Amino acid sequence: MPTRPTPTERQKRLGAELRKMRTAAGATTEYAAGLLGLDRTKISNMESGIRPISPERVHTLASNYECSDRRYVDALAEMAGNRDRGWWDHYRGTLPQGLLDIAELEWSAARLRTAQTVHIPGLLHTEEYARTVFSAVLPPLPRLEVELRVAHRLERQKVFTRDVPLDYVGYIHEAALRMQFGGRKVTQAQLDHLCTASERDHVALKVIPVERGAFPGAGHALLYAEGIVPQLDTVQLDSAHGPEFMYSEAQLSKYRTHLDWMDKAALPPKESRDFIHHIARQL
């Protein structure tokens, strides 16, 4: 199989899991290479996501590493076998890889939880709100790139209209609801859109009122994607240099705790919807 010059985050994650499974077994790259009849360089490339691996070889490695977690191994084999192009691939070469990785992460998630303190969740942007967000960056983006990012962001909402909609919980701080990106009318339309989206069976929006005071992770935009199995959960944080992806158990535990705190502090979905309606009327 040919190598990939720029593996996606999902491909790199598969390789990292194979490396973790090998090191947990105390096996060397030479041992893994012998199992597959390859040289050790190709094993290193597989574990970095540069070189593809077949589902059959995933099962061969897992069996010889004595990994007994069948659901975990099957999930890795599914990742190895799924090489279909996603809708986000249409933007490859025109948008930063990190944006495509976020779209693929959302599409592959079994369940998604996000927390926002300044912006409305990206999965629920209106066109004008998204355009305002992407226009307010330094250095300014060219108009074409702004429009490409807006189109990409709106297409991310396909996770809610596909045959099996994504289960989604969004925690939104009151401050994000009151930030008037694009002015009063754009913000009103965005809040109305939020209320409509929150009526879907698979979408739950929960508002954290400012009166709740300090909370863990304040100021961070957080995305927690649950995998097919817990070992494949992923955290994504925004940064000035692009999205950061994390999946060590310590990191996953930390951000699960953050979200659990928010869940207890936030208003229930119906009260949150009424709260959003109230803010929209105040604008």
In short:
With 283 residues, the protein is of the alpha/beta class. It has helices at residues 9-24, 29-36, 40-47, 55-64, 70-81, 97-108, 127-135, 143-155, 174-178, 184-197, 249-265, 269-282; strands spanning 111-116, 167-173, 203-208, 222-226, 234-237, 244-246. 49% of the residues lie in helices and 11% in strands.
Instruction: Tell me the overall shape.
Output: elongated
- The poorly predicted ranges are none
Q: Termini separation (Å)?
A: 57 Å
How would you classify the quaternary structure? single chain
Let me know the average pLDDT: 95
Secondary-structure element sequence? Answer: HHHHHHEHHEHHEEEEHH
What's the story with the biggest beta sheet? 6 strands, mixed
What class do helices, strands and sheet pairing give? alpha/beta
The order of strands across the largest sheet is 3-2-1-4-5-6
Number of strands: 6
What do these coordinates show?
The chain is an alpha/beta fold and about 280 residues long. The chain is about 50% helix and about 10% strand. It is built from 12 helices and 6 strands. The protein has helices at about 10-25, 30-35, 40-45, 55-65, 70-80, 95-110, 125-135, 145-155, 175-180, 185-195, 250-265, 270-280; strands at about 110-115, 165-175, 205-210, 220-225, 235, 245. It has a 6-stranded mixed beta sheet with strand order 3-2-1-4-5-6, with helices on both faces. Helix 4 (about 55-65) runs antiparallel to helix 5 and helix 7 (about 125-135) crosses helix 8 (about 145-155). The longest helix is centred in the last third of the chain and has 17 residues, at about 250-265. The radius of gyration is 21 Å and the shape is elongated. It starts with 8 loop residues before the first helix and ends with a helix. The mean pLDDT is about 95.
